[in-house]
Write a structure and sequence with these properties.
Helix content is 0%, strand content 52%. It is mainly beta. The chain has a five-stranded antiparallel β-sheet, with no helix packed on it. It has a four-stranded antiparallel β-sheet with strand order 4-5-6-7, with no helix packed on it. A four-stranded antiparallel β-sheet has the order 13-14-15-16, with no helix packed on it. A hairpin with a 4-residue loop joins strand 21 (183-187) and strand 22.
Length: 283
């Protein structure tokens, strides 16, 4: 779990801060790659790579686009992508290739340019995924882009670009789901459908194919954890259950092997087993 206090590992009984000896940075993202190595994205100190024994820190000095890392993603080829403040970096195991934000555009910078740590949030890359066709989707504080390996194209609906998209996933059926300032959207390969206009900060698909979201119940108000039923996902208005409401900001949703849902809040991490909620902050 990534937190302002460090990266925590939970073994079923207790929490251990695994980064306390190497960094006092705030962490925002965690990725386990296909080889079982871990990547920790920090706000201000770049990326920490952990092989289970030792740490390696990558920063702008090594070619990273920026030291404020918001999201991370491993593509089908095993490259690691880092969504940063001001751009994105792709790491092939040897070197970084950077793609920089310039106003409302995103393009490759072949000079290996980095940008200094900035006051958030000018041009953050919030989400990166590779879809089944091999195209990459980038959700940013500005516009949303599709990258075919050569060109970045702005994603629009009725001529209007999607702005401040905070999270993107592709479900097991190949449907793209986007969440952010413009609400919660479904893309079936040809048509965008709006599911809710509430701000959505995080999207997750569980092992049964249900879609979970964290959303703001009203601007500046409390947040809700919601589950969209798998059987109705292709309907105009999928069936939704508000599992948790009247909560502070909810960010980060993950399903454990036992089917319980874990999610991060301003009041600590919580676990939902299908019936009850456990808040571990006081423990």
């Amino acid at each position: 779990m990534a937190s302002w206090e460090g990266i925590f590992r939970y073994d079923g009984k207790s929490f251990t801060n695994v980064t306390s000896s190497v960094s006092s940075a705030r962490f925002f993202s965690v990725l386990e790659d296909r080889k079982g190595n871990l990547w920790f994205g920090s706000i201000g100190s770049g990326v920490y790579y952990y092989d289970g024994k030792s740490f390696q820190n990558f920063t702008t000095k090594d070619g990273l686009a920026n030291n404020e890392i918001v999201c991370m993603y491993e593509d089908k080829r095993g490259n690691i992508w880092f969504g940063a403040n001001g751009g994105a970096s792709r790491y092939d195991g040897k070197s970084f290739r950077n793609y920089m934000m310039r106003g409302d555009s995103l393009s490759e910078d072949r000079k290996g340019k980095s940008v200094p740590s900035l006051q958030r949030p000018p041009h953050e890359i919030n989400a990166i995924i590779e879809d089944k066709t091999g195209k990459f989707w980038f959700g940013t504080r500005d516009h949303t882009f599709i990258y075919d390996g050569k060109t970045f194209t702005t994603v629009t609906h009725n001529g209007k670009p999607f702005t401040n998209v905070r999270w993107i996933i592709e479900d097991r059926k190949g449907t793209i789901w986007l969440g952010g300032n413009d609400g919660f959207w479904r893309y079936d390969g040809s048509t965008f459908t709006n599911i809710t206009q509430n701000f959505v900060g995080y999207i997750y698909e569980d092992k049964n194919g249900n879609i979970w979201t964290s959303s703001e119940e009203r601007p500046g108000g409390s947040w809700a954890l919601s589950r969209y039923d798998e059987k109705t996902l292709s309907d105009k208005k999928p069936a939704v259950t508000e599992v948790k409401s009247k909560e502070g900001m909810i960010f980060g949703i993950l399903e454990a092997y036992d089917g319980s849902i874990w999610f991060g809040t301003l009041n600590g991490v919580q676990r939902y087993d299908g019936n009850t909620f456990n808040n571990f902050k006081d423990k």
